[in-house]
Design brief:
single chain; alpha+beta; eight-stranded mixed sheet; four-stranded antiparallel sheet; 9 helices
């Protein structure tokens, strides 16, 4: 099969200049890499701003019309800060020289940037063992406001620059801290279950927006110095939400992830009213309100590549040519003793009476979910004659707090049980071939592939694990501080404190039991799922005589270059062709398809 032409994309709306809505900055495809572009909504002209070896994704535009972007250093490891390290740069929307945004700032990983209307800049930069928060002015040497060994990100800056919010993990005892620019702590807002959504942008306001986990639902909350933390118990949702202020500082735009799709609401905090914002059925990858009351959103469905839309018809950057997506796309709920498991099912066009071979695409996270959204891998597999199953196992978002926090069989084992249940249900229903099912996952999804093949040998015909966790203890010792903290929460301690829990969840423990052919893809500069623990797992497969192949990418865990994605896709399709029964013949076709980036662990 001839490979389609791929484009990369970032699931985020353009950033709009606060003082001139016709000026926007966005990230789009540039010959197979993500790069930053400007967009003039009046002339409808785009101009490429960046051109880096590894691609560029982090960007912003300030009230003076200056475009900011984060440029990684050439080897991705400046100052020992690790994969993706670099610095902020800027130039004007209309062109001009490329200038350092915060000259003299330490290199690191971007953890947020904000520029107020008066030009005050705040940024957070993460190194190997610390996060540094900086304040200053555009193009001037910044002042170090705070240095902490806790993983955190910039949660927002008040319009007058007087208050800065830092967001740690939502599950930390101190989930959000509010500080002054000189580093004085004004408030600490406790977790677990508190997400920072940013300050109101209305001049004179210092109100912080938050989302709270109430245990069985989610609610909006706000904080001010005068009133403290206020939970809006009248505004609750049964599944995960994110929220943004409208520019008027009174209304809030809420995006709800629910059962693999999205809903949008306009909430009036004063009158305690909320109303639906009409959008097509599918997924909203991003949504943002404007001063006029209009809403911009990035919409997609399984059969529709992402499209930028505005409720008032404002011209947004084009999303590319239309794509004809093959197959039939539907949902299925599998009943289990614990609850119904939801999956998205994509079937090739009928070509015979026999059920098709199936590939289970296993999402990462685990705090993420598969959406009714375009996925180039789904497109390629269905076009090749395979059924594709995307399971939102326990631990996934989009199904409420109970589902998200459920790990009754233990880390990994709970999710494998859900994959098994959905597989059995689809086979019993005659929708997929029982003797021709394979697993394919990235990051945490790749981890589940390895665990499933070791725990239930013979159930799956083949497996593909891309940038997986293969040995929890080894990964813990060499991964990022944020992921080490996540491990401690999941397992209830470090590998030294609870070694049996790490061993029970590790694919390495079951490597000798694997019987299905396996393709493992690692990345030499991966700091999230480090290469050393993958090599150890591959060695164990070799010792056990397990048939396997290895592929190595000279990249980090995340990336903005489509070439690596296409290389993995081609190798994986070839691997599946050799190990699953030949799909029934399909009509040929090679429509262009965007290439989604790797999912987070």
């Amino acid at each position: 099969m001839t490979a389609p032409a791929y484009q990369v994309f970032v699931a985020a709306l353009p950033d709009v200049c606060p003082t001139d809505r016709r000026r926007m900055v966005f990230t789009a495809d540039a010959a197979g890499r993500c790069e930053v572009f400007t967009w003039d909504a009046v002339s409808r002209r785009a101009r490429q701003v960046t051109n880096s070896r590894a691609g560029t994704v982090h960007r912003a535009i300030d009230a003076d019309g200056y475009v900011w972007w984060f440029d990684e250093d050439e080897d991705g490891a400046a100052g020992g800060a690790g994969e993706g390290a670099g610095r902020w740069w800027f130039r004007h929307f209309d062109g001009g020289p490329r200038l350092p945004g915060l000259p003299g700032a330490p290199p690191g990983l971007p953890r947020g940037l904000a520029v107020t209307a008066d030009g005050t800049v705040a940024a957070a930069v993460a190194g190997e063992e610390r996060t540094v928060v900086l304040t200053g002015r555009r193009g001037q040497v910044p002042r170090e406001m705070l240095r902490t060994d806790r993983p955190c990100r910039l949660g927002g800056v008040s319009p007058d620059g007087a208050l800065i919010a830092l967001a740690a993990s939502a599950h930390d005892t101190t989930a959000v801290s509010v500080l002054t620019p000189d580093g004085r702590t004004v408030a600490t807002l406790p977790g677990p279950g508190l997400w920072c959504q940013g300050f109101s942008t209305r001049p004179g306001h210092r109100e912080l927006l938050l989302v709270r986990d109430l245990g069985d639902r989610y609610a909006l909350a706000t904080w001010t110095e005068e009133q403290g933390l206020r939970t809006r118990h009248w505004c609750v949702f049964d599944t995960e939400i994110s929220a943004r202020w409208y520019p008027d500082g009174r209304h809030v735009l809420v995006r709800q992830d629910r059962h693999g799709r999205s809903l949008l609401y306009r909430v009036d905090l004063g009158s305690r009213r909320r109303e639906r914002v009409p959008t097509p059925a599918g997924s909203l990858l991003d949504a943002a309100p404007r001063a006029s009351g209009a809403v911009d959103y990035l919409w997609t469905g399984t059969a529709h590549p992402p499209a930028l839309c505005a409720t008032d018809g404002l011209a947004l950057p084009p999303a590319g040519p239309p794509v004809a997506v093959p197959g039939r796309h539907t949902d299925r709920w599998t009943p289990t003793a614990w609850g119904r498991v939801h999956c998205l099912l994509s079937l090739p066009e009928p070509a015979g009476s026999a059920p098709p071979p199936a590939v289970f695409l296993v999402h990462g996270g685990p705090a993420d979910h598969d959406r009714d959204a375009y996925d180039a891998t789904v497109h390629s597999l269905v076009a090749s004659g395979y059924a594709v199953v995307r399971v939102n196992y326990r631990g996934s978002t989009g199904y409420g707090p109970r589902w998200r926090h459920a790990f009754p069989a233990g880390v990994g084992h709970t999710q494998v049980a859900d994959l098994d249940a959905v597989r059995a249900d689809l086979v019993d229903a005659g929708l997929i071939a029982g003797d021709a099912t394979a697993l394919w996952g990235v990051s945490w999804g790749g981890y589940l592939v390895l665990l499933a093949l070791g725990r239930h040998p013979g159930r799956w015909r083949a497996g593909i694990a891309v940038k997986p966790v293969a040995d929890w203890a080894a990964a813990h010792r060499t991964t990022t501080p944020a992921l080490r903290a996540l491990d401690v929460r999941m397992f209830g301690g470090t590998p030294d404190e609870v070694p049996e829990r790490y061993a029970r969840a590790s694919p390495l423990t079951y490597a000798s039991s694997v019987t299905a052919p396996l393709l493992v893809v690692g990345a030499t500069r991966d700091t999230k799922c480090p290469p050393g623990q993958i090599r150890g797992y591959l060695d164990a497969l070799t010792v056990a005589g397990v048939p396997h192949e290895a592929m190595w990418l000279d990249t980090g865990h995340d990336g903005y270059d489509g070439a690596a994605h296409v290389a993995v896709l081609r190798r994986s399709l070839s691997f599946l062709r050799a190990r699953l029964p030949e799909p029934a013949p399909r009509a040929p076709g090679r429509p262009p398809a965007p290439a989604g980036g790797p999912r987070p662990r």
